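User: Um, any thoughts?
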Amino acid sequence: MQLLYHLYFNITRENVGHFRFCVSCNLLIDAIKSLSDKSNRKVTQVDINNQEARKQFYTYAAAFLAAFLWASAFPATRYALQYYSPVSLMVMRFVAASITLGIIGLIKKIKLPDVRDLPLFAASGLSGVFLYSYLFNTGSVSISAGVSSFIIASSPVFTMVLARFFLKEVVRPMCWAGIMVSLIGLAVVTLTQTSEFSLNIGLLLVIGAAVSSGVYSAIMRAVTRRYTALEATTYTIIAGTLGTLFFLPSAIKEIPDSNITVNLIVILMGIFPAAVAYLAWSYALSKAKKTAHVIVFSYLIPLISALIAYIWLSETLSVFTLIGGLVIIGGMVLTNIFDRE
């Protein structure tokens, strides 16, 4: 019995020692793993921060690219109207845009629109492509690119008003205040284009284009609930282009009286401001944390347009026109701030 006791005691003591040794090893391994995990977390966090910064850069770059391309369309239109009639310029530009978006749509394999949504696309194409382009191109014959860009900048005002009455969207009181500020700025710009109490008809046409753009944006809010930005833009522009084909024969007749430079500009207007800009804008909206972070870039369009028109076409803006334009933008900024709260 005594022998068995000594044997049991020695075995137990060895096991306890072995147990303590194993516990110590496990604690050491856990400590090493903990340090390794902390190091990996630090590296991972740095990678995440770099990815977020890169994503933010691409988002803002895309938004600025869209704003710049849209701004360039105003002086480009003024230049092209020296060689083409407003309707011919309209059809040539959007035929190029339709071909571009059609090719992109085939590559991306976008879905076809439902038959029940065809009237909706017809309405968006009529307001956003046909009516807008006809009114804008015709009005731009008699007013400068800078003035027209400031007027078109007021189109979100009409979008908000239409959304309130037709889409039943809630508009805050301070948003109405921002709308009123923008309308005051629009009135100032209008007065600068009035001579001897005779209102510039071109100005009224561009205001009509701004209203048409507002209608288009309100319709697109409904369309984009069921379609992606690429699908909605592609089918809208194609639908609008079909309506412009009535003027295609007259556009073809005017081609011999133009030159290679202006024809290239018209094609580029269809590819970049009408196609690439929309895609860049859609990308920016899809990647931004808040829509307001992207919308703010649209406020640069009139200023960029006026600068391009000054360098390219030697157009200048009067002090009162500039003040009125800045008031329009100020009202839009105010509306956007309170609309996002």
